[in-house]
């Protein structure tokens, strides 16, 4: 640790023993972040944000994309100027006694890594791909603890990897990031963040791209590290479900401001702001099947176009003209609650919500979407196997990786079949084989009684309009140089279908987009709107089978609900069969008639909904269900011990490498 960092840490320790009237480890007051625009004016994505973080506290900052969460975390790190922003003169951001707005850069730099650790969303882009794990971890240790010699540095590196529950830590030092799973990479990032022995850990969406089981393990790991190290954590996320059993306090942000904050138990038991309540109710329940999900209409406003009055009023079902549209609501103490409970709503004393968070664990089974039609299956799969040749060493030596191993299943007409499992379990490979986007190694796939594998390229092309696919990332699946009109016209023209304006408007209407969207380009839409465009393109040819490969995993929970409703409507209105691939069992419970569980390239369980939820058979199915977050703090705390036992029984997916590999 440098002398400057040591001085900062010494001052921080003194602060933690300060009188009770100033117990904060980090303090933010009236934070306003401004960016200058090319037009000569400026915008403020974050305005009037105030909160504090106490020693050893776990604070969750929640909100949709664009709410200002990540910018606020950058302010705590003193990095706003690095992304082109500036903090207003009246704002205060103090961490471990250091003014992160006005202190010179050397003082702020000394605090980063030493006093403050940071875990970023995507470890693959945060880790150097050409440096080994040992080199990168050793570099962090040497930077913050220069007094250690080479032997002590190596010993500490192994100890840090062991603390984050990575197997064979000594051997892992020689590995490179691309050789590790997503969960292992994120654990390495946590070890690097802990190298300077920080007092505050900032985690910016650390589990967004991870499977539900790995997500649960990472959050449980950070939770345990907090207890073991008396570490304070600021967890930034868009999903209220994942923080129920993790956070001590919750801060909800919308349009750059805090709209609600309070103790986790109070917020989850009875959210008081309409936005917090809507976020809570947009989470699909795991315990029963809803006929329809709650979706927040519209999308968050851009910083330059925020409405007057309450920024949420144009999406709020409780807004009143001349009340919510004229005055910006202050953050007000809720009468009868703890000192930390505050809400920014002008109708706070008038609004009563019909349901609280407890609905997720107490409501009876609801009637879900209609089940599959009787009769012969649309798709029949028998003994499907797909192997890939991979390099293993020099001199052209190759091995066979079995991605899908002897899978058999049927997909009924107008049925929605869910396929769940972690990354690497074979879900996406199975999806591509179903449509013969890749050729299976062996097995048989029949579509409406005809074997796809035996079809020529010409015959297969004639079948393409009947089976379509929706990919995970609409940004990469939509051509950025084509307008929405051109995007929708393309498949119609290729297959010689009618392509008039009325047809295009009807496609947009089926995915709840206005006709005005036809003239716009993909970059002018939000992530959820781009995925709706991708769905409209997929259904343009009126397919009988639609394969959806994790179509909502990268989206905010409120946007997910809206798109899941769209997919449910398409089945009901057009009789489309869907294969819905996901790792979130709550979404699958809402949408699907039957559920198949993939594990280590095999289909280990296939059953109806709700049978697979009420009486799971395979240990891995039980592990997936135990890892699925439930928005109830008491339930999540009780499940933590059970979850560890089940994950140990089924295997730890975040620490396993390549499976099912055999010599070629």
From TrEMBL:
Transmembrane segments: none
InterPro entries with a match to the protein in the record: AAA+_ATPase (IPR003593), ABC_transp_ATP-bind (IPR050319), ABC_transporter-like_ATP-bd (IPR003439), ABC_transporter-like_CS (IPR017871), Oligopep_ABC_C (IPR013563), P-loop_NTPase (IPR027417)
CDD domains, sorted: ABC_NikE_OppD_transporters
Cited Pfam families: ABC_tran, oligo_HPY
PANTHER family tied to this protein: D,D-DIPEPTIDE TRANSPORT ATP-BINDING PROTEIN DDPF-RELATED, TRANSPORT ATP-BINDING PROTEIN
Polar residues: compositionally biased ranges: 655-664
SUPFAM superfamilies, alphabetized: P-loop containing nucleoside triphosphate hydrolases
Domain (ABC transporter): residue spans on this chain: 26-280, 379-625
Annotated region described as Disordered, given as residue ranges: 1-21, 644-664
PROSITE patterns per UniProt: ABC_TRANSPORTER_1, ABC_TRANSPORTER_2
GO biological process, one term: peptide transport
Start-end of Low complexity biased regions: 1-18
Organism: Pseudonocardia sulfidoxydans NBRC 16205
Protein's name in the database: Peptide ABC transporter ATP-binding protein
Family named by the database record: Belongs to the ABC transporter superfamily.
Molecular function GO terms recorded: ATP binding; ATP hydrolysis activity
Keywords: ATP-binding, Nucleotide-binding, Transport
């Amino acid at each position: 640790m440098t002398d400057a960092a040591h001085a900062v840490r010494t001052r921080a320790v003194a602060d933690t023993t300060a009188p009770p009237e100033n117990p904060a480890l980090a303090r933010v007051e009236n934070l306003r972040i401004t960016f200058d625009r090319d037009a000569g004016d400026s915008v403020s994505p974050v305005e009037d944000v105030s909160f504090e973080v106490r020693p050893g506290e776990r604070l969750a900052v929640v909100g949709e994309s664009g709410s200002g969460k990540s910018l606020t975390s950058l302010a705590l790190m003193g990095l706003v100027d690095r992304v082109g922003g500036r903090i207003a003169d009246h704002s205060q951001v103090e961490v471990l006694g250091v003014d992160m707005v006005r202190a010179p850069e050397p003082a702020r730099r000394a605090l980063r890594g030493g006093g403050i650790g940071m875990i970023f969303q995507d470890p693959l882009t945060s880790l150097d791909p050409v440096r080994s794990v040992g080199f990168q971890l050793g570099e962090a240790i040497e930077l913050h603890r220069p007094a250690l010699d080479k032997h002590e540095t190596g010993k500490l590196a192994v100890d840090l990897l062991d603390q984050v529950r990575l197997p064979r830590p000594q051997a892992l030092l020689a590995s490179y990031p691309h050789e590790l799973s997503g969960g292992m990479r994120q654990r390495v990032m946590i070890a690097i963040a802990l190298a300077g022995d920080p007092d505050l850990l900032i985690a910016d969406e650390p589990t967004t791209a991870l499977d539900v089981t790995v997500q649960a393990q990472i959050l449980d790991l950070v939770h345990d590290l907090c207890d073991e190290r008396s570490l304070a954590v600021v967890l930034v996320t868009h999903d209220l479900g994942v923080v129920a059993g993790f956070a001590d306090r919750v801060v909800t942000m919308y349009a750059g401001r805090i709209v609600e904050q309070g103790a986790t138990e109070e917020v989850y038991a009875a959210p008081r702001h309409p936005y917090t309540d809507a976020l809570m109710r947009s989470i699909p329940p795991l315990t029963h099947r809803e006929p329809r999900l709650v979706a927040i209409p519209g999308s968050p406003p851009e910083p330059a176009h925020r409405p007057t009055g309450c920024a949420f009023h144009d999406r709020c079902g409780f807004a009143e003209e001349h009340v919510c549209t004229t005055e910006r609501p202050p953050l007000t103490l809720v009468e009868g609650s703890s000192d930390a409970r505050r809400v920014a709503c002008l109708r706070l004393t008038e609004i009563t919500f019909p349901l609280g968070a407890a609905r997720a664990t107490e409501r009876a089974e609801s009637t879900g979407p209609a089940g599959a039609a009787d009769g012969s299956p649309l798709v029949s799969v028998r003994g499907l196997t797909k192997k890939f040749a991979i390099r293993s060493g020099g001199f052209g030596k190759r091995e066979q990786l079995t991605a899908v191993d002897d899978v058999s299943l049927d997909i009924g007409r107008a049925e929605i079949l869910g396929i769940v499992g972690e990354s690497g379990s074979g879900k996406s490979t199975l999806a591509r084989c179903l449509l013969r986007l890749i050729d299976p190694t062996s097995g048989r796939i029949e579509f409406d009684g005809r074997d796809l594998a035996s079809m020529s390229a010409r015959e297969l092309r004639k079948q393409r309009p009947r089976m379509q696919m929706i990919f995970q990332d609409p940004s990469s699946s939509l051509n950025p140089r084509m307008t929405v009109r051109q995007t929708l016209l393309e498949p119609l023209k290729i297959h010689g279908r009618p392509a008039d304006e009325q047809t295009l408007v009807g496609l947009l209407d089926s995915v709840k987009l206005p006709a005005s969207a036809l003239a716009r380009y993909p970059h002018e839409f939000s992530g959820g709107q781009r995925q709706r465009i991708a769905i409209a393109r997929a259904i343009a040819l009126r397919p009988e089978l639609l394969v959806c490969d994790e179509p909502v995993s990268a989206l905010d929970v409120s946007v997910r609900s809206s798109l899941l409703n769209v997919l449910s409507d398409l089945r009901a209105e057009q009789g489309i069969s869907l294969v819905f691939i996901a790792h979130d069992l709550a979404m699958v419970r809402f949408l699907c008639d039957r559920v198949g569980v993939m594990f280590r390239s095999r289909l280990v369980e296939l059953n109806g909904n709700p049978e697979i939820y009420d009486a799971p058979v395979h240990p891995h199915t039980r592990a997936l269900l135990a890892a699925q977050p439930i928005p109830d703090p008491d339930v999540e705390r009780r499940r933590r011990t059970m979850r560890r036992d089940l994950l140990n029984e089924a295997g730890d997916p975040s620490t396993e490498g390549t499976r099912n590999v055999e010599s070629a």
